[in-house]
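[job 4471] stage=fold_predict status=RUNNING
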Amino acid sequence: MRMSMTRHPTAHKAFHDIVAIEREINALFVHAAETSTEVQLLMLKMAENMFAKFRKYFRRIEDTNQFLLVALVLDPRFKLKNITHTCLQVLQYSAEEAKAKANSVKELLVSLTDIYRTSSSSKSKKSKNVKMTGKMADLLEGWQKALAESDEVVVESEVDRYLLDPIEVPPKREADSWCLLSWWKTNGCKYPNLALVAKDVLAIQMMQSKRQRKRRQKAKESLWLYQKQKVKMKL
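[job 4471] inference complete, writing structure tokens
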């Protein structure tokens, strides 16, 4: 039921859940193979059925919705390093394969950020640029020149700045209550366009319970009846 929660984001947890479920099913195979009791044979049969259904949707990481990986990267406790770590240590990828997977996820995140930046810049009002003159202009020009000649690394990309910033490590006493949305609300000003991506990606609902599906269907029907009645009133 955690995956179908509506009051808290779950998209960033989905990839870890998928990997954990696969490991649990594989553990059933190993445990059942060690003994041949009737109970273990039943567990083996259950594991086979579960594994068949699991593989129907999650055969490879490439078959998984890539937005789940983007959502994981948008969790500052994990970022891109966790995808590389999971691919190497859990999924048994080679170093080249893990690096390629991490790069593809980063490219997707960069593309999304560029799209949101273009959209937000087109909506924002053009502000009048005030050209500085005099000593202030000379001061800033000298600084820009010194910066260009120095070895100082200037990171312009929002995604690179976010990934290069330290991993968030909440205190143990706050680990269970730590809120991802609160973090983005506080730190989003440092990555304005990336925050827009996080706002939409983290809002993706992974699953729906039967009650939620019925509620949504009822809402759609009510909206359809309202619109139909409104059209009749106009006629």
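[job 4471] summary: The chain has a mean pLDDT of 79.
[job 4471] exit 0
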